[in-house]
Amino acid sequence: MATATGTRFDGDLTQQPPIPDEAIAAAVAVMQSGRLHRYGAPESQTAALEGEFAAWQDARYCLALASGGQAMQIAMRAAGVAPGDRVLTNAFTLAPVPGAIVAVGAVPVLVEITPDLVLDLDDLAGKARASDARWLLLSHMRGHLCDMDRLSEWADRNGVTIIEDCAHTMGARWNGRRSGNFGVTGCFSTQSYKHLNSGEGGLLTTDDPALMARAIILSGSYMLYARHGTPPPDELFEKIRLDTPNNSARMDELRAAILRPQLRGLETNIADWNARHDRLAAALASDPRLVLPRRAGAESYVGSSIQFRAPGIAPEAFLAAATERGVDLKWFGRSAPMGFTSSHRSWRFVPMQELPRTDEVLADLYDMRVPLTLSLSDCDLIAALIREALP
Ligand SMILES: *Cc1c(COP(=O)(O)O)cnc(C)c1O
Questions:
Q1: Which atom of ligand 1 is nearest to the CA of 202?
Q2: Are the C-beta atoms of 90 and 119 separated by less than 8 Å?
Q3: Does the CB atom of residue 232 touch ligand 1 within 6 A?
Q4: Of 210, 257, 265, whose CA–CA distance to 35 is shortest?
Q5: 83-86-89-95 Cα dihedral, nearest 10 degrees
Q6: Distance (Å) from CA 178 to ligand 1 centroid
Q7: Distance CA 119, CA 105 (A)
Q8: How far apart are CA 138 and CA 183, in angstroms?
Q9: 41: Cβ–Cβ under 8 A, 6 or more apart, which residues?
Q10: Is the shortest distance between the CB of 118 and ligand 1 below 6 Å?
Q11: CA dihedral over 37, 38, 44, 50, signed as positive or negative
Q12: How far apart are alpha carbons 40 and 380 in whole angstroms?
């Protein structure tokens, strides 16, 4: 349909770049070998990926898994979360995060977010006191990092163990330190819409050898744990190998083969995401009707998505006008879940909790992926169309 200026965005915000040729060749070689199981491959792609990702992340150990959700579940189990424990987490995140907490038999305690989309550290302190929770599954939702210095100091002082969900912050840093290295473990996803794409997949990192030994056995290493890419000392496995349940959540050779070449290109991709994100952000921030979340000076982010608020703007009309211009925005204030997006009010598997400040932020919060298939002029066009769609 023609708009006032007659322009519309004809691209697709869900379109990822193709898998690099080098990765396709590596995947074909795995298939020709017939050895797709990581513990059946003499020179395991999965073990090599673990070593390479640990080095890239500046972590001692890495474990490759079937999904980011499995990484969070195994991280919690390996860190010692027990059934019935309360686990603090962001009220603004995606369903696999509270889902992972429930899957390990624990109970999510939802914490408010600030208008800058990060965990509200004052509410965190209050909820921790009221619930006696000893765990925080911190979700760096949409790539926004809270004050990691203040949080780490508070967690140390209060005996709260942090597990980081870095599904949106692979490559982000706080004061130079990579997200994922603040908690006892970092959990990453290689699902198609994250920073590496193997369709599905997960990575767990830690500096703690005993935690990693438990995680490796939990992931389903059988007695082949020594073939892991970054193995902790053998004696740590000896102590636990027969007492630790096998959760069968391994990564396979095919996915590892296509991830290794992508990891080599990740820093370049991060720069490309940020160029696109910053182009969009500058144009949107120049509109007085829109409010973008503020970023701390200590934060280096990965702009693989962008969020903005449009206070006082009627959402349905705005979204319809944007869609008409080819720009499908996600709105977190929607009362019913849609696509990948849902709010805490539709997580019926979590005890109902009142989160008035989060609800107020989500009511006018819009979200858009920034795929690398966008050109910079696409970004200019999209920003202009979003502004034009505002009533
Ligand atoms: C995608 C995602 C996950 C889970 O990753 P999967 O690999 O899809 O299981 C966890 N947290 C957030 C915030 C995510 O977006």
A1: 7
A2: yes
A3: no
A4: 257
A5: 40
A6: 18
A7: 23
A8: 9
A9: 30, 33, 35, 253
A10: no
A11: positive
A12: 49
State the distance from the centre of ligand 1 to the C-alpha of 96, rounded, in angstroms.
Answer: 6
Ligand 1 contact, 133 CB (< 6 A): no
| Pairing outcome for strands 177-178 and 185-189 | unpaired
* Interhelix angle 121-131/148-158, nearest 10 degrees: 20
Q: How many CB atoms lie within 10 A of CB 71?
A: 32
Taking only the tens place, the pLDDT of each residue in 77-131 is 999 999 999 999 999 999 999 999 999 999 999 999 999 999 999 999 999 999 9
CB 287 within 8 A of CB 387: yes
Q: Residue 162: name the closest of 146, 144, 173 by CA.
A: 146
Measured distance between the N- and C-terminal CA atoms of the chain, rounded to whole angstroms = 17
pLDDT in tens, 253-307: 999 999 999 999 999 999 999 999 999 999 999 999 999 999 999 999 999 999 9
Nearest CA to 284 out of 144, 391, 384 is that of 384
Residue nearest atom 11 in ligand 1 by C-alpha distance: 167
- Has this prediction a pTM greater than 0.85? yes
Distance 344 CA to ligand 1 centre (A): 15
Tell me how far the alpha carbon of residue 177 lies from the centroid of ligand 1, in angstroms: 22
Task: Tell me if 164 sits within 8 A of 184, measured CB to CB.
Answer: no
